[in-house]
Amino acid sequence: MKDLLSLLAVWSIVLSGLALLVGLFLIRRGDRVNHHRAMLTATALAALFLVFYLAKWALHGTTAYGGPEAWKGVYYFILITHTLLAALNGPLALYVVVRAFRGQFTLHKRWARVLVPIWLYVALTGWIIYLVLKRYGVETGTITF
User: Fold this and answer.
1) Beta-strand pair 63-65/137-139
2) Are 9 and 56 in contact (CB under 8 A)?
3) Cα dist. 106→55, 96, 130 in Å?
4) Beta-sheet strands, E only, within the chain
5) Helix/strand/coil for 85
6) CA–centroid distance for 50 within its chain
7) pTM of the model
8) Under a CB-based contact definition with an 8 Å cutoff, are residues 143 and 62 in contact?
9) What is the CA radius of gyration of the chain?
C-alpha cells in the first residue's frame, strides 16, 4: 500500500506540473477556454497529490535522509525550501483560481506570475526529494518532524 500511495502521489504531481505547463502555453496562444480546463486539471491533480501524500504519511510515517554526509546540507536546503513554498503554494493557488472565477483577471494574472514559478519549483524539488529518499531513505515507521 505504501508503494502504491507513493507512486500515485508522484505521478499526480508530475501530471499536475505538465497540465500547468500546457495551461501556460494555451494562455500565451490566447486560448482561454482550454487554459481554464488545463489549469483546473493541474489544480485537481495537485489536490489529489496532497491526499495521496498525506495518506502515505499518516499510514506509514516519514522517511529520513540516510545518504552521504556531504550531500546532507544540500538535501535539507531543498527540503526546507520545498516545504515552505509548498505551504504557500496551496493558498496562493486557491487565491489565483478564485480571482479567475470572479473575472478579476488583472489580479489573477498578477498573482499567477508569482504562483507558477513556485508551483514548478515545488513540483521539481518534490521529484528530487522523492528520488533521493528512494535511494537513501531510512524508514522511521513514525511521524517525525
Assistant:
1) antiparallel
2) yes
3) 37, 10, 36
4) 63-65, 137-139
5) helix
6) 8
7) 0.86
8) yes
9) 17
Residue owning grid cell 496562444:
29
The owner of cell 496532497 is 50
The whole-angstrom separation of Cα 34 and Cα 85 is 27
What is the average per-residue pLDDT within 12-23? 94
The single-letter code of the amino acid at 16 is S
Q: Which phi and psi (to 5°) does residue 142 adopt?
A: -135, 170
Q: What distance lies between CA 126 and its chain's CA centroid?
A: 7
What Cα–Cα distance (Å) separates residue 49 from each residue in 27, 28, 69, 76, 102?
24, 27, 30, 22, 26
Tell me how long the chain is: 145
| pLDDT-derived band at 1, boundaries 50, 70, 90 | confident
Cβ–Cβ under 8 Å, residues 49 and 13: yes
Instruction: For residue 48, give every residue at least 6 positions away whose Cβ sits within 8 Å of its Cβ, in sequence order, or none.
Output: 8, 12
